[in-house]
């Protein structure tokens, strides 16, 4: 499945999205609820300053005494006392609001990070169980964007944004309460302005979805470009491809710019529109307020309190507008995240799959057909039987299906028709884990992970003893190399093991395969990229790996091919010849004989001259 083709179709199914995110929210429900409860007074306290203006203007500035009754007792507060109490009260409320804001922020950050981590854990677990074809079809940038960035956008932001809405909503309600207390007539005008301010938000959500999806694809392409620039830096330098990479980067960056500007052209008018709506509201309030004051329907203090509340109200309303816009982006990301959860690996265990415990008799390919792209077959009706402890060399034209054939054995890909059987049982009836535990593979360009040499070798069998480790090292002819390193086995490797030479990396990979001690060994062009000296020592290590095992060898070295029990010639996806070197050389105009004359004869001549 191509991830760039997904478009978050469920982005506006809010009930569906919340039901999907709920399992990740549920474990932290208490902290989230506590955060929401704190957000309520945090918002309500926004109205304290506006509320304090009325008594300040009416009693402190007006020089009046504030009289009130409480529990059948009469009390009075002078204007001087009021001038002290009100400012101190405002400061205390501000301090309380600061404490609540810190607690709310801490709880919000904690829960958001935990939810994000849980989503990432589950997504990464699904990613590592995807089959190789999934990685063939999707670039590294798109995968990084979808599996790392989208979960952070979706889960890390949703709690924050909902709490912001809660705080802003209750802040708005508190200010509206102050407005109603000051003048219900003016409050009606304020509420109408409030409702009008939300109209633009509903009009741009689809534009946000479209822009977010386009930016996801562009961002993935940019990341891919950076990854390729890093991984292919030598090729880039050798062929002077800097201008090419720079051109791609600039084009992709400008595409992102154009998408964002296109969105802004459609969404950027929201803020000016809200300002205009607010200005109409304020102008109306000023006109009506002046009439109410002159008609003695309200005091100057009430009017000042109301106007302050109205002006303060713009902040939570603007925050609500921006937050709702951000939430649309979050929901789009969330829709994309759950699309990833709904992708089922095409290669998975069958119901009631059994465990494979070694190879007893043979591996059979029966009428195997395979294609990467529909209607473009790579293997055609291929049938072949390999007996236990037999070594089979696979040769043929480039792109003829040699690597594909061996990649089908560990189920990196599944065939379209036919069957591959181990001891007369279709490999699809075994668990994938047990099948692959019975196979050791050495590739042309073996990947070594960041870490020590020992850690990379132990990946073959994490439970291996020290004796088994040392034996694998000796069999792979690594002992001399390790002795020369200052930290020996504990030497840290750079990314992809690039601090080692090609031959050294191959021998570490062979030691890893040796430690696995699997009955089936696959060697896929394991020495093709090495010089003669490195090839010779790696070949010795490979010979040790092949002892008493069933081996599939894709090789270009004549001695390896001739020493195999049999040779299979694959041409254009078909098995055209099968036999020993001598048998195949007897076939007039045979494929192997022609291949030998073109590719292998000079190796033999070189060996004879030496």
Question: What labels would you give this structure?
Answer:
single chain; 610 residues; alpha/beta; four-stranded antiparallel sheet; 23 helices; 13% strand
What's the gist of this structure?
The chain is an alpha/beta fold. Helix content is 62%, strand content 13%. The C terminus is likely disordered.
Strand segment count: 14
Overall structural class, as computed from helix and strand content, comes to alpha/beta
**Helical amount among residues, as a percent range?**
55-70%
Q: Summarize the main sheet.
A: 6 strands, mixed
> Looking across the biggest beta sheet, what order are the strands in?
8-11-12-5-13-14
First-residue to last-residue Cα separation: 53 Å
The oligomeric status of these chains comes to single chain
Describe the structure in your own words.
- By secondary structure, this protein is an alpha/beta fold.
- The protein is 62% helix and 13% strand.
- The chain is built from 23 helices and 14 strands.
- The protein has a 6-stranded mixed sheet with strand order 8-11-12-5-13-14. The chain has a 4-stranded antiparallel sheet with strand order 4-3-6-7, with no helix packed on it. Strands 1-2 form a two-stranded antiparallel ribbon.
- A hairpin with a 2-residue loop joins β1 and β2.
- α1 (14-25) packs across α13, α6 (140-182) runs antiparallel to α7 and α6 (140-182) packs antiparallel against α9 (205-231).
- It is elongated.
- The two termini are 53 Å apart.
- Residues 606-610 have low confidence and may be disordered.
């Amino acid at each position: 499945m191509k991830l760039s083709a997904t478009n978050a179709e469920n982005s506006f199914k809010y009930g569906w999205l919340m039901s999907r995110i709920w399992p990740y929210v549920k474990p932290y429900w208490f902290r989230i609820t506590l955060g929401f409860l704190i957000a309520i007074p945090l918002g309500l306290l926004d109205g304290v300053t506006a509320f304090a203006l009325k008594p300040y203007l009416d009693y402190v500035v007006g020089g009046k005494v504030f009289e009130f009754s409480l529990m059948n007792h009469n009390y009075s507060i002078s204007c001087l006392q009021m001038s002290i109490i009100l400012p101190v009260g405002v400061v205390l409320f501000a301090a309380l609001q600061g404490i609540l804001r810190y607690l709310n922020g801490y709880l919000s950050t904690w829960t958001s990070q935990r939810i994000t981590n849980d989503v990432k854990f589950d997504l990464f677990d699904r990613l590592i169980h995807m089959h190789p074809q999934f990685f063939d079809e999707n670039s590294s940038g798109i995968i990084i964007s979808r599996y790392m960035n989208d979960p952070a956008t979706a889960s890390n932001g949703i709690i924050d944004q909902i709490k912001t809405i809660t705080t802003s909503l209750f802040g708005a309600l508190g200010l509206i309460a102050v407005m109603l207390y000051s003048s219900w007539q003016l409050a009606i005008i304020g509420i109408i302005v409030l409702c009008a301010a939300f109209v633009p938000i509903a009009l741009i959500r689809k534009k946000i979805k479209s822009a977010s999806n386009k930016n996801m694809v562009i961002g993935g392409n940019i990341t891919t470009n950076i990854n390729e620039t890093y991984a292919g830096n030598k090729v880039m330098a050798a062929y002077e491809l800097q201008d090419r990479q720079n051109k791609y980067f600039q084009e992709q960056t400008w595409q992102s710019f154009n998408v964002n500007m296109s969105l802004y052209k459609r969404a950027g008018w929201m803020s000016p529109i809200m300002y205009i709506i607010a200005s109409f509201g304020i102008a109306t309030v000023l006109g009506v307020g002046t009439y109410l004051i002159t008609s003695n329907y309200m005091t100057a203090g009430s009017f000042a309190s109301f106007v302050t509340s109205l002006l303060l109200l713009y902040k939570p309303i603007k925050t609500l507008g921006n937050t709702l816009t951000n939430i649309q982006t979050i929901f789009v990301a969330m829709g994309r995240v759950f699309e990833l959860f709904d992708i089922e690996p095409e290669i998975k265990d069958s119901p009631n799959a059994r465990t494979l415990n070694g190879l007893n008799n043979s591996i059979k390919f029966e009428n195997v057909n395979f294609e990467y792209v529909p209607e473009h077959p790579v293997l055609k009706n291929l049938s072949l039987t390999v007996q236990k402890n037999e070594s089979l060399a696979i040769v043929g034209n480039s792109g003829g299906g040699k690597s594909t054939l061996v990649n089908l054995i560990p189920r990196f890909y599944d065939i379209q028709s036919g069957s591959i059987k181990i001891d007369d049982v279709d490999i699809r009836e075994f668990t994938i884990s047990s099948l692959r535990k019975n196979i050791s593979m050495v590739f042309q360009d073996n990947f070594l992970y960041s870490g020590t040499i020992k850690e990379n070798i132990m990946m073959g069998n994490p439970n291996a003893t020290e004796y088994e480790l040392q034996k694998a090292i000796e069999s792979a002819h690594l002992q001399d190399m390790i002795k020369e390193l200052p930290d020996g086995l504990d030497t840290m490797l750079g990314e992809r093991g690039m601090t080692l030479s090609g031959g050294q990396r191959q021998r570490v990979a062979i030691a890893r395969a040796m430690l696995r001690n699997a009955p089936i060994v696959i060697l896929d062009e394991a020495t093709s990229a090495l010089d003669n000296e490195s090839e010779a020592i790696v070949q010795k290590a490979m010979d040790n790996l092949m002892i008493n095992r069933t081996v599939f060898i894709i090789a270009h070295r004549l001695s390896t091919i001739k020493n195999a029990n049999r040779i299979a010639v694959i041409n254009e996806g078909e098995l055209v010849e099968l036999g020993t070197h001598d048998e195949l050389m007897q076939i007039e105009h045979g494929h192997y004989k022609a291949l030998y004359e073109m590719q292998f004869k000079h190796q033999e001549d070189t060996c004879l001259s030496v």
